[in-house]
Design brief:
The protein is mainly beta. It is built from one helix and 20 strands.
């Protein structure tokens, strides 16, 4: 073994050790400094956030800026459970470089115990409403709350002082975690809807104030619905994407009406690497469509419980159906 080779081996060993130390933070705020950026300087690289574990992405385009909202996986290495105490906010004007803003803690909701699960943010009349999944202090099971802010990056505060949806309001399944993963959509006529659920997909209208349901809770029957609904519209078609089976793929359905009937189409995204869950956001930014999701691909500690947000392009067929998303390590090109 030459001196040069021994030196390279030692440097490699030291680098690996430092990376492992960086990802194994016993404080519970598990992070990774692993370099997962693309070798192409014009592309973002996947995952797009590498200094913290991020999951369950939602995204909002406002004033030519993309705001990315994500849960913060904080499960220590060598343990396998969902540990999430806050949500994170990032912004970008090119889909490649991201600025981190102040996190939003579960403790902002005095009626919640913990569990910063999947959330969704939407703008209406200059206000920004953040719909979140948490565990309720007094009502058994998961619940959905609403926070509000004057800016997409906050600061946010509890908009109601109590939950919008609680487990005792729905009786479609016996599980206690069926009221999760809110996704809000405002239709062209101004009517707002909230979709949510696990094993059973539910939806309801929202009042104009965005903090009250406006009518009965209804259900949608889709093949192998698990969780993570997301609604977007392009042209005359509404698209309802969702987590399908378990481990989760992403599938989608289409309709000419926000209230259906919905026609199941196909798988949109395969099982994400090293993660049992798959949770998507779909946005249009600067005339391009993007598919935002998570996987467990950060080296050394990435897993189903330490996930990472990724972004790839979304493309349409001539008939309006969606092409299958190709997951890449290069990510998307920076846009101007």
């Amino acid at each position: 073994m030459t001196h040069k080779f021994r030196m390279m081996t030692m440097l490699s060993f030291i680098a690996t050790a430092l990376m492992l130390l960086g990802s194994c933070n016993p404080s519970g705020k598990t992070e990774s400094n692993a370099d997962t950026t693309s070798s192409d300087p014009h592309k973002a690289g996947n995952p797009v956030i590498t200094h913290k574990y991020t999951a369950d992405p939602a995204a909002l385009v406002y004033n030519d800026t993309v705001y990315l909202y994500a849960g913060h996986d904080q499960c220590p290495p060598n343990r396998n459970h969902y540990e999430m105490h806050e949500w994170l906010v990032f912004s970008s004007t090119d889909m490649a470089n991201w600025t981190e803003h102040e996190p939003f803690p579960v403790s902002a909701f005095e009626w919640a115990i913990d569990d910063a699960w999947a959330a969704h943010t939407i703008e209406r009349d200059g206000k920004f409403y953040w719909y979140v999944t948490v565990s309720h202090k007094n009502i058994h099971g998961k619940a959905i709350g609403v926070a509000v802010a004057d800016h997409p990056a906050g600061p946010f505060k509890d908009a109601i002082g109590e939950a919008l949806i609680t487990n005792d309001m729905t009786h479609h399944t016996d599980i206690s975690w069926d009221d999760i993963d809110p996704a809000v959509f405002i239709d062209d006529d101004g009517q707002a809807y909230i979709f949510w659920g696990n094993t059973v997909l539910k939806y309801a209208k929202l009042k104009d104030n965005m903090i009250e349901l406006d009518g009965p809770i209804k259900t949608i029957d889709l093949p192998f619905f698990t969780e993570a609904p997301w609604i977007h519209k392009r042209g005359d078609y509404y698209y309802l994407s969702y987590a399908y089976q378990f481990p989760e793929k992403t599938a989608y359905a289409m309709s000419k009406s926000i209230e259906g009937p919905w026609e199941y189409k196909d798988i949109l995204n395969e099982v994400a690497g090293n993660s049992n869950t798959n949770h998507q956001a779909i946005i249009k930014y600067k005339n391009k469509w993007y598919f935002i999701y998570h996987n467990g691909s950060i080296p050394t500690a990435g897993s189903s419980y330490r996930r990472s947000v990724c972004i790839d392009r979304l493309h349409y067929n001539a008939d309006g159906t969606l092409k299958r998303v190709i997951m890449t390590t290069e990510g998307v090109e920076a846009v101007k």
